[in-house]
């Protein structure tokens, strides 16, 4: 058939498909084909026309739709609708109170300002969209037979797109071609999740062209994939080839829009999602919006103001009716209607109700919501620019992603925290390992951690830092060298997760001797098909090196490929040993030196003799170091710090990961030989299996070997049950080592392997391929295949990795507890590890009675009842705090009694939720100072947060750093993400983002207190200001027959709230500081004022309303009595009242301001000057503005009259005298903690610090913060090391252990207390 006939047939088939189904509706599965055969057709005939194009439009409006759409959005606010209705009501002649056009000014100003802000934001979005849509990209053209340059907006689903190195990917592309011979494309996903480490993507299986060319016109497969979703970690589908063969693909084959291609010359593929259907755009939700607790209260009080307005208007309407009824005839001042008929008094009273609504409309604060938004923007500005919350190491500061909940930071009662990466640094240090039941303590590496003196830069050591590996030369397997990253790379440092503290691993000498014994190493592998003797040690380190997803820098790839060609067979490997006899002999001699020095070192385990180490180091030549050194430098980029730590540990023993490709991983052995393992499959880690596996073909034995690593709970139960007693003993010893590691706070992993027969692997691979080719239930099927393979494992060993606490974590938790905040830690770690960290970070104190709930039986309810009974038996009376003025300090008084802690495991939580025992758990938790939840899943974390938030009706905060914390962060009232080592998923889902847990202390105790107190006082002041001013008009109605007349010119009335009194409260809400930051940090108890909402209570609101009524009475009747009986006109009578109310309102705010700055003075004085300038100009030029009474020259005449000044002074003093007297009495007599704290602020810095120290010294010893007794880190390290070593000494007395005199001295001073625990 000719080409036109093919096109006609394609058009006809598409028309028939269009009749059969709706073209715009997508099925559950997306089906797409190549666009190349239909390149010349119009869009309506394109096969993938129903899918979105790649043009991005994030703007809300167009030129024509801006006004109607923006008004529609603004009228979603009740306040705007209310004021528009009032303004429209003023156009009705029979009820209007002002000039109709004037009544529109306030609401028009608010709407115009908001519209200008929205228009500017939308214009910026338009510019960004335009720039993005016009970025260049390469799209394949059938006419040109090549890739041609087009814009991003021209990309369609089904197009073939090529991207080159350092180019941003324009759409979600299924990878079909890569210039890399291994079919790999490296991408950087920093624009999506903030992670700068490289990730590997590989071409779809079976699409690697032998000659490296890619010809899209020959692509004839049909692609089936899932519908667009915002899950960055999930993508599934399959290719349906013409021969009906299905090839599955997943997320490892997808290039995501917004990512950057790195270290790959070019890559190409077919577009599966474009534009707004890409995962990047589906995750682009912008700033989060939440309603704060204070905002909800404000909405309630606005309703109270509406009710108050209704009552005042009803009084005015009834008063007008009664006043008209007092006249026997129709009064002469009541005009008839247009038909010359007079309205009855009842109907006139009804109309007067609406007139009063117009007159008193200012009672509802129209500018309150706008002022709140401006204040929150100002508060966020000061929070983000706080130098104490800036991290110099990462050059990052706090991020405020939610713009409207700053005041909630001052009302938190419960904090839910992750452990790893949140309380700890998530910088993993290899500390211990157990291989074949033998424990290797890595004394040198542990010693360097205990001293805390870590090198600041690579290759440098602080003076006096003990060199635990001084006997080993640089470049040998005994020390890993971390080279400088290549300067050719333009991306951030490839060692994204690794620092010298992690990469500088000092190996254990006994284990190093085993791994360097090359005589039997290869022979053992060739002779046996299972782990035995030395081969088990080799398999252990090989598993550490290859069972991961670590990416090796491409700087080494050319060299690695040449090595593989030269050393790809067993004969080459064996010959490589024989070809270097001199080096082998030198290696043996060096091992002999190591043995001799090790014997000396064991005889004097605590010594650090630099002369001996330097002399031993001199025995090693530069040539010897060259045999195992890394001349080109290796740069590892790991998605998890755990993986990086294990790879560097393997490298320290000479098992160096050289290269990784989708189908091959290359490792260099300690003697320099290179092994290339064929990767048959990788079973990625997931939270259900809690392990990962790699299936490889051994290059020597040619066996199919599975290397597995994971949690001990997941590996131990999968071991081969039919093994000899020796294997059972090894497993038992390893389990004891694991328990001791966990007790010392180390993160534990088990390493295992399994050898498969060829037939067994082929059968499993066929099932696995079928599972990969499905879309429905794909995850479940893949999970089943992985579980089926990971059985009957052979245990190789276990590792213990230290994750150090972050700086100041114990002090931060102690301060938060003093502030009345309960801290819960929710972690997936095992019980022993989590409990040890809990004591180290002072979540639990040594004197606490800790209850451990660990059961999965149906007796969970009875266990909870027994525990509750035990707690009630010990429960002391509730704490009571009283603040007394003793030498100017705040002194607490609290009852004595036992304190409780609770440890609950994930399986017990599951039983609690299944048996509906949540309330009993909450009752038990409320008696505990802290709660630790171990072995919990991400869903359980969010369920716990939701339970506490909803049942206890408290403000909650969740903080975490990883993707497993996202659910918890989004469930809490405030979510905080830590931008650490686990990527940016938590940060992207959070309301605030910080870099260290210690920043939480100042964020809550200082900024939280300030934001809440400022905003609460400002809102209360706003209500007071409006009620006070409106009441002046209300009192006047009693003397004008309730006629709705105003004694103040309506222009000045409008300007009063819009300009004269609007800016001072905004500055008050942004900049006022009732207490200094130093005092708030020194006295965390002051935070409780925000928890109890003491600044904004219902009683406070009504007291302020009464004060406003009183001040309005004074401001009205003193001028009224002054001018009573005179012949002044109405505006001359109202001008003093307006002026007096301005002074009273501003001075009322001045009494509340606690910290005066030049800005406060400027706005206060500026408001007064602005009032007089505007009033004088208005009175001078307004000759006939409001007939028959006009304000011409009234202000000038008043300012020339001394009575005017006397009235202003007397009235203001009398109006503010009660409030001033109350504030004086509160500062003199009251025992409020805030007043006492402000007294401390008036002292000098030294005197204040001394008073705070005196106050803390009188507290209960159990409550004294750790940093006031001894250095936190010193105690934590000493406790951990002593407890750990003593445990291991009891378990394995035949081994040598560290003797730390400093540790013993620390414990002799009484810091190590008894631990009271009860396990249920």
From TrEMBL:
Residue span(s) of domain P-type ATPase C-terminal: 987-1229
Entry EC no(s): 7.6.2.1
Biased composition (Polar residues): 473-493
Catalytic residues (positions): 418 (4-aspartylphosphate intermediate)
Keywords of the record: ATP-binding, Endoplasmic reticulum, Magnesium, Membrane, Metal-binding, Nucleotide-binding, Translocase, Transmembrane, Transmembrane helix
CDD domains documented for this protein: P-type_ATPase_APLT_Dnf-like (cd02073)
Reactions catalysed, as given in the entry: ATP + H2O + phospholipidSide 1 = ADP + phosphate + phospholipidSide 2; a beta-D-glucosyl-(1<->1')-N-acylsphing-4-enine(out) + ATP + H2O = a beta-D-glucosyl-(1<->1')-N-acylsphing-4-enine(in) + ADP + phosphate + H(+)
Cofactor: Mg(2+)
Molecular function GO labels: ATP binding; ATP hydrolysis activity; glycosylceramide flippase activity; magnesium ion binding
Subcellular localization(s) per the UniProt record: Endoplasmic reticulum membrane; Membrane
The protein's enzyme class: translocase
Coarse class of the protein's main subcellular location: endoplasmic reticulum
One Pfam family named in its UniProt record: PhoLip_ATPase_N
Membrane topology label: Multi-pass membrane protein
Record-listed ATP binding positions: 418-420, 643, 685, 709, 747, 827-829, 935, 941, 964-965
Similarity annotation: Belongs to the cation transport ATPase (P-type) (TC 3.A.3) family. Type IV subfamily.
PANTHER family: PHOSPHOLIPID-TRANSPORTING ATPASE VB, PROBABLE PHOSPHOLIPID-TRANSPORTING ATPASE
Protein name: Phospholipid-transporting ATPase
Source organism of this protein record: Scleropages formosus (Asian bonytongue)
């Amino acid at each position: 058939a000719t080409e036109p006939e093919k096109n006609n047939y394609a058009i006809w088939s598409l028309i028939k498909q269009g009749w059969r189904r709706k073209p715009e509706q997508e099925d559950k599965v997306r089906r797409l084909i190549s666009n190349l055969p239909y390149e010349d057709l119009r869009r309506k005939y394109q096969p993938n026309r129903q899918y979105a194009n790649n043009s991005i439009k994030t703007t809300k409006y167009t030129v024509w739709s801006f006004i109607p759409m923006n008004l529609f959005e603004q009228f979603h606010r009740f306040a705007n609708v209310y004021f528009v209705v009032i303004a429209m009501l003023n156009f009705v002649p029979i009820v209007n109170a002002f000039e109709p056009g004037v009544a529109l000014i306030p609401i028009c100003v608010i709407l115009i300002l908001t519209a200008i802000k929205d228009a500017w934001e939308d214009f910026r979005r338009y510019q960004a969209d335009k720039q993005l849509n016009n970025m260049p990209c390469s799209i394949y053209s059938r006419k040109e037979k090549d890739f041609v340059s087009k814009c991003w907006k021209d990309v369609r689903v089904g197009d073939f797109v090529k991207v080159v190195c350092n180019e941003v990917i324009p759409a979600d592309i299924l990878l079909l071609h890569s210039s890399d011979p291994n079919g790999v494309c490296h991408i950087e996903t920093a624009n999506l999740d903030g992670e700068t480490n490289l990730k590997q993507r590989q071409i779809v299986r079976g699409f690697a062209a032998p000659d490296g060319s890619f010809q899209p016109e020959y692509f004839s497969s049909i692609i089936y994939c899932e519908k667009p979703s915002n899950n960055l970690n999930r993508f599934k589908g399959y290719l349906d080839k013409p021969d009906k063969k299905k090839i599955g693909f997943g997320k490892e084959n997808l290039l995501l829009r917004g990512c950057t291609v790195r270290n790959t010359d070019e890559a190409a593929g077919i577009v599966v999602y474009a534009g707004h259907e890409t995962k990047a755009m589906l995750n682009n939700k912008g700033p989060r919006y939440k309603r704060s607790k204070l905002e909800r209260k404000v909405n309630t009080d606005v309703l109270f103001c509406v009710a108050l307005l209704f009552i005042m208007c009803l009084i005015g309407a009834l008063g007008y009716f009664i006043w008209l009824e007092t006249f026997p005839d129709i009064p002469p001042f009541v005009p008839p209607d247009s038909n010359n008929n007079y309205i009855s008094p009842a109907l006139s009273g009804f109309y007067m109700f609406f007139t009063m609504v117009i007159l008193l409309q200012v009672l509802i604060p129209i500018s309150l919501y706008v002022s709140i938004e401006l204040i929150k923007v100002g508060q966020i500005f000061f929070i983000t620019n706080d130098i104490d919350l800036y991290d110099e190491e990462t050059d990052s500061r706090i991020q405020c992603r939610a713009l409207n909940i700053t005041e909630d930071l001052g009302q938190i009662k419960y904090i839910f925290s992750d452990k790893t990466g949140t309380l700890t640094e998530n910088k993993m240090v290899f500390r211990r390992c157990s291989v074949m039941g033998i424990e290797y303590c890595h004394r040198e590496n542990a010693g360097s951690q205990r001293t805390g003196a870590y090198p600041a830069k690579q290759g440098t050591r602080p003076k006096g830092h003990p060199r635990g590996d001084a006997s080993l030369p640089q470049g040998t397997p005994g020390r890993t060298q971390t080279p400088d990253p290549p300067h050719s790379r333009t991306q951030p440092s490839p060692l994204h997760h690794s620092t010298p503290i992690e990469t500088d691993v000092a190996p254990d000498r006994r284990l190093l001797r085993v791994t360097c014994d090359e005589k039997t190493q290869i022979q053992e592998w060739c002779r046996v098909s299972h782990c035995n003797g030395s081969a088990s040690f080799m398999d252990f380190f090989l598993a550490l090196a290859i069972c991961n997803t670590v990416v090796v820098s491409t700087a080494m790839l050319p060299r690695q490929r040449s090595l593989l060609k030269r050393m790809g067979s067993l004969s080459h490997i064996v010959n490589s040993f024989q070809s270097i006899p001199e080096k082998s002999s030198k290696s043996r001699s060096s091992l002999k030196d190591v043995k001799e020095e090790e014997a000396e070192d064991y005889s004097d385990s605590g010594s650090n003799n630099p002369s001996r180490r330097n002399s031993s180091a001199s025995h090693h030549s530069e040539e010897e170091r060259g045999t195992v050194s890394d001349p080109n430098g290796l740069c590892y980029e790991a998605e998890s710090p755990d993986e990086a730590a294990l790879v560097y540990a393997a490298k320290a023993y000479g098992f160096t990961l050289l290269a990784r490709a989708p189908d091959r991983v290359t490792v260099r052995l300690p003697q320099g030989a290179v092994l290339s393992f064929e990767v048959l499959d990788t079973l990625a880690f997931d939270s259900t299996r809690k392990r990962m596996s790699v299936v490889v073909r051994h290059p020597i034995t040619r066996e199919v070997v599975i290397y597995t690593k994971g949690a001990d709970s997941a590996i131990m139960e999968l071991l081969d049950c039919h093994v000899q007693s020796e294997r059972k003993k090894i497993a038992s010893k390893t389990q004891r080592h694991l328990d001791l590691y966990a007790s010392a706070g180390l993160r534990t992993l088990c390493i295992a392997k399994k050898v498969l027969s060829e037939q067994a692997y082929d059968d499993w691979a066929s099932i696995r391929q079928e599972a990969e080719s499905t879309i429905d239930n794909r995850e479940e099927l893949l999970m089943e295949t992985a579980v089926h393979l990971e059985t009957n494992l052979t245990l190789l060993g276990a590792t213990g990795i230290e994750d150090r606490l972050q700086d100041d974590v114990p002090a931060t938790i102690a301060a938060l507890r003093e502030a009345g905040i309960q801290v819960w830690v929710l972690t997936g770690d095992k019980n022993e590890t989590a409990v040890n960290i809990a004591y180290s970070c002072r979540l639990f104190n040594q004197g606490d009675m800790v209850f451990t709930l660990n059961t999965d039986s149906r007796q969970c309810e009875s266990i909870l009842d027994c525990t509750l009974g035990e707690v009630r038996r010990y429960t002391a009376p509730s704490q009571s705090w009283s603040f007394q003025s003793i030498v100017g300090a705040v002194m607490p008084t609290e009852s004595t009694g036992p304190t409780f802690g609770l440890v609950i495991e994930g399986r017990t939580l599951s039983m609690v939720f299944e048996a509906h025992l949540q309330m009993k758990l909450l009752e038990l938790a409320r008696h505990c100072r802290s709660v630790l939840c171990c072995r919990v899943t991400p869903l359980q974390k969010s369920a716990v947060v939701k339970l506490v938030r909803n049942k206890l009706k408290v403000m909650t905060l969740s903080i975490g750093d990883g993707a497993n914390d996202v659910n918890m962060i989004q469930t809490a009232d405030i979510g905080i993400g830590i931008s650490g080592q686990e990527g940016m998923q938590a940060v992207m889902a959070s309301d605030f983002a910080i870099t260290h847990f210690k920043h939480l202390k100042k964020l809550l105790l200082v900024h939280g207190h300030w934001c809440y107190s400022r905003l609460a006082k400002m809102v209360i002041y706003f209500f007071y200001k409006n009620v006070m001013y409106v009441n002046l008009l209300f009192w006047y109605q009693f003397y004008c027959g309730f006629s709705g007349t105003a004694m103040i010119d309506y222009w000045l009335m409008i300007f009063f709230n819009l300009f004269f009194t609007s800016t001072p409260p905004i500055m008050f809400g942004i900049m006022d500081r009732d207490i200094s930051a130093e005092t708030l940090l020194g006295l965390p108890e002051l935070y409780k004022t925000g928890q109890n909402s003491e600044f904004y209570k219902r009683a406070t609101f009504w007291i302020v309303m009464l004060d406003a009524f009183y001040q309005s009475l004074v401001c009205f009747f003193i001028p009224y009595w002054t001018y009573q009986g005179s012949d002044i006109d109405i505006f001359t009578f109202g001008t003093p009242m307006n002026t007096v109310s301005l002074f009273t309102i501003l001075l009322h705010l001045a009494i509340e301001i606690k910290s005066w700055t030049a800005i406060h003075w400027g706005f206060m004085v500026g408001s007064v000057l602005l009032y007089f300038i505007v009033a004088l100009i208005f009175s001078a030029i307004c000759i006939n503005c409001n007939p028959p009474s006009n304000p011409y020259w009234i202000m000038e005449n008043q300012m020339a009259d001394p009575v005017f000044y006397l009235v202003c002074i007397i009235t203001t003093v009398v109006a503010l005298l009660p409030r001033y007297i109350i504030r004086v009495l509160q500062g003199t007599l009251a025992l409020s903690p805030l007043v006492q704290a402000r007294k401390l602020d008036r002292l000098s810095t030294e005197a204040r610090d001394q008073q705070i120290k005196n106050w803390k010294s009188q507290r209960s010893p159990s409550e004294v913060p750790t940093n006031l007794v001894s250095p936190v880190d010193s105690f934590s390290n000493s406790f951990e090391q002593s407890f750990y070593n003593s445990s291991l000494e009891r378990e394995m007395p035949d081994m040598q252990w560290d003797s730390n005199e400093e540790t013993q001295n620390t414990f002799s001073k009484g810091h190590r207390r008894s631990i009271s625990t009860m396990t249920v």
